């Protein structure tokens, strides 16, 4: 039996809420979080999905990328660095044939363009990955995370 009790709202914690609604008779869902912005989630076609949204495991990597990107941009802005272009590429490795199949290794490549000091970029990424990024903290106990950057 599932525990149907919602998470208590406690003053010392930030509470997040997500609602997931099935869109079709297969695996297409629409999720809406506290922000009110809808995201579409779907399964692979080989199990009956329709490619109408991101896979749940892709969304985990997207969340990791977004969390760190926000940190890095904020830190570089405080350092008066000028960012003309900012991109991340995230590659995740999962064990084949395993159920569940969590990520074992993740590599993030930061691609930046602008008037940027390489030492400041490295420091901003290190701070994000080692101190600030909550998504990284979720992955770290079970996933080896590596990262690199390129100034374009």
UniProtKB/TrEMBL annotation:
GO molecular function, one term: peroxidase activity
Pfam families reported for this sequence: OsmC (PF02566)
Enzyme Commission number, as recorded: 1.11.1.-
EC supergroup of this enzyme: oxidoreductase
Keywords: Oxidoreductase, Peroxidase
Superkingdom, taxonomy of origin: Bacteria
PANTHER family xrefs: PROTEIN YHFA (PTHR34352:SF1)
UniProt name for this protein: OsmC family protein
Organism: Spirosoma soli
């Amino acid at each position: 039996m599932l525990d149907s009790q919602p998470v208590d709202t406690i003053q010392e914690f930030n509470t997040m809420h997500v609602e997931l609604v099935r869109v079709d008779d297969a695996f297409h869902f629409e999720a809406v979080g506290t922000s009110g912005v809808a995201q579409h989630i779907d399964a692979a076609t080989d199990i009956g999905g329709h490619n109408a949204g991101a896979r749940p495991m892709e969304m985990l990597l997207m969340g990791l990328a977004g969390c760190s990107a926000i940190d890095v941009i904020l830190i570089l802005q405080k350092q008066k660095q000028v960012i003309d272009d900012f991109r991340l590429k995230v590659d995740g490795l999962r064990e084949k044939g395993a159920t569940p199949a969590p990520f074992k290794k993740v590599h993030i490549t930061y691609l930046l363009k602008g008037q940027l000091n390489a030492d400041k970029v490295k420091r901003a990424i290190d701070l994000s990955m080692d101190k600030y990024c909550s998504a990284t903290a979720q992955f770290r106990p079970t996933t080896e995370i590596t990262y690199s950057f390129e100034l374009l």
